[in-house]
Every structure is written in structure tokens, then in C-alpha cells.
Design a protein that fits this description.
The chain is α+β, with helices and mostly antiparallel strands and 204 residues long. It has a single domain, classed as Clam (outer membrane lipoprotein receptor (LolB), chain A). The chain has 3 helices and 11 strands, in the order H-H-E-E-E-E-E-E-E-E-E-E-E-H. An 11-stranded antiparallel beta sheet has the order 6-5-4-3-2-1-11-10-9-8-7. Strand 7 (123-131) and strand 8 (134-141) form a beta hairpin.
Length: 204
């Protein structure tokens, strides 16, 4: 059953998108995408993740713009990702007690958390493609392509974020598929509060 589910997800996140739109048509589409993303103050959803090694995991994701993000992975995983709003991303693996911290600006997904999402300026759109009622937009930080890229995939009518794929600095790809998406709701500020268990002795 798990193998079948994995194959279905793999087919979903890697569609054969049609050829890229002409530049003029891209501009109108990207303006719509900007308006949609900037209209999202909060987002909460279930997610399924396909890691670079092909492993499948699930959990909940929370976004509160600007700057706040949380991934809670379902057991048996003991991983958390938290961006507490100070423009850093904390990766915590409770199974080994390891904490890694990196600036959000060094992660492709950080583009979603900007105070104002602009698909120009500091961000460069490298591809815009459409297929079967979906729109895929690939972006990088301008001049920092070595940090990787993120491809955001939207339903077109109405425009709605469905999933994304992140290519990291090593070229490894992670796919996130969203389910039961809720936007505009009130999120508890404690979701984005980070206290290092090694410092505060908190339960993991």
C-alpha cells in the first residue's frame, strides 16, 4: 500500500508540463501569482514529503508571513523545522539532539516568507509552465543560483498553492504535497517560538 501511495505521489509531483509561455503572457501570470501569495497571511495544511532518498513522511506545516514557518513531522520522525520570525531557520532532530540554524535567505523556500513576495528584484523566475489545470513557477534568489531553487505548483482556477519542490545547493530534490489547506486563519504564536531543548531542558 505504501509503495502504491509513493508511486502516486511521485507521479503527482513530476508532471510533464507544457512548453514555457511567451514572455508577455508570463508577466500577467506572475502578477496573479504575486497577488495570490501576498494575500496569504497564514497557511496551515497537512503535507506529504518525498525526500531525496525516496523516503515518504507526513506531518503538518504552518506559515505566517512574514518570516514564520513550522514543519511538524508525524512519528516516528522526531524532526522539527521552525522559522521563529527573526529570519533564521532552525532544524532540530530530537533523535540525536542536533540543532542546525541557517538564515532563511539561504533557503529557496524562504522566498515564500518574504515581507512582500516579488517575482523580480532579488528573485529571478527561471521557468513558467502550464499543464492540465496547473501552473508551475520556478524561482531562485538572483545571483545565488548555487543556493538552489524552488518550484511552486498552483491550481489555476481558482489560483491555489498545491505543492512545491525544492532543489538544494547539492542538487538534491525534496517534494512537498499539501493537503487540507487552510488560509487566513489565526495561528497560535507559540507554534513559531523556538526554545533550544539543550538550553532550556524542555521535553522534545
Amino acid at each position: 500500500m505504501l509503495t502504491r501511495r509513493f508511486l502516486m505521489l511521485a507521479a503527482l509531483v513530476a508532471p510533464a508540463f507544457a512548453a514555457a509561455r511567451p514572455l508577455a503572457a508570463q508577466s500577467a501570470v506572475l502578477a496573479d501569482v504575486e497577488r495570490y501569495l501576498n494575500g496569504i497571511d497564514t497557511l496551515a495544511a497537512r503535507f506529504e514529503q518525498i525526500a531525496p532518498d525516496g523516503s515518504l513522511s507526513r506531518g503538518r506545516v504552518y506559515i505566517q508571513r512574514p518570516g514564520r514557518l513550522r514543519f511538524d513531522y508525524d512519528p516516528p520522525s522526531r524532526i522539527r523545522l521552525i522559522a521563529p520570525g527573526d529570519w533564521r531557520l532552525v532544524f532540530y532532530d530530537a533523535s540525536i539532539g542536533q540543532v542546525n540554524v541557517i538564515p532563511i535567505s539561504q533557503t529557496p523556500l524562504g522566498i515564500l516568507l518574504d515581507d512582500e513576495v516579488r517575482l523580480d528584484g532579488d528573485v529571478e523566475v527561471t521557468n513558467v509552465r502550464e499543464q492540465a489545470g496547473e501552473l508551475a513557477v520556478t524561482v531562485i534568489r538572483k545571483g545565488e543560483a548555487d543556493q538552489g531553487s524552488v518550484t511552486l505548483v498552483f491550481a489555476k482556477s481558482p489560483l491555489a498553492l498545491r505543492r512545491w519542490s525544492v532543489v538544494d545547493a547539492q542538487g538534491l530534490v525534496t517534494h512537498i504535497v499539501l493537503q487540507d489547506v487552510e488560509t487566513g486563519g489565526k495561528l497560535d504564536s507559540e507554534l513559531f517560538r523556538w526554545r533550544d531543548p539543550q538550553t532550556y531542558g524542555l521535553p522534545d
